[in-house]
Specification:
Blueprint lengths: L1 H25 L13 H14 L6 H16 L6 H6 L27
Length: 114
C-alpha cells in the first residue's frame, strides 16, 4: 500500500507541477508596462514599416504618438459607456468619414477605408 501511495502522489505532483509551469508560461507575454521608453521609437518604426507594407503612409513620429495615446488610454479608468464617447464626435471641418475627428495636419483616410 505504501508503494501505491507514492506512485499516486508522484502522478498528482507531476500534474500539478505541469499545470503551474503552464500557467507561468501562458502569462509570460509582454504587456504595455513592459515596453520601456527606449524601445518606443523602435516599436513605432516597426509599426510604420508594417503599415507601409499594407499601403498606409504612417510616419514613425505619428506611430509613436499613437502608441503614447494608446498607453494613456490603457492607464485611464474605463469609460462609463462606449456610446457616450462616440456621441462626442461631430461631423465638421475636422472630422473624417464616420464622424471621427482628424487632426488638422493629418491626411484624410483613403476613400472607402475610413
Amino acid at each position: 500500500m505504501n508503494a501505491e501511495f507514492i506512485v499516486w502522489a508522484l502522478v498528482v505532483g507531476l500534474v500539478l507541477g505541469a499545470g503551474l509551469v503552464w500557467l507561468v508560461i501562458m502569462d509570460s507575454r509582454r504587456r504595455e508596462l513592459d515596453v520601456e521608453a527606449v524601445e518606443r521609437p523602435l516599436e513605432a518604426a516597426w509599426l510604420s514599416a508594417v503599415m507601409a507594407e499594407d499601403g498606409y503612409d504612417v510616419s514613425p513620429e505619428a506611430a509613436e504618438r499613437l502608441l503614447d495615446l494608446h498607453r494613456s488610454y490603457l492607464e485611464a479608468p474605463p469609460p462609463d459607456q462606449a456610446s457616450s464617447t462616440h456621441d462626442r464626435y461631430e461631423d465638421g471641418p475636422g472630422a473624417a468619414a464616420g464622424g471621427i475627428p482628424v487632426d488638422e495636419g493629418a491626411d484624410p483616410p483613403p476613400v472607402g477605408e475610413g
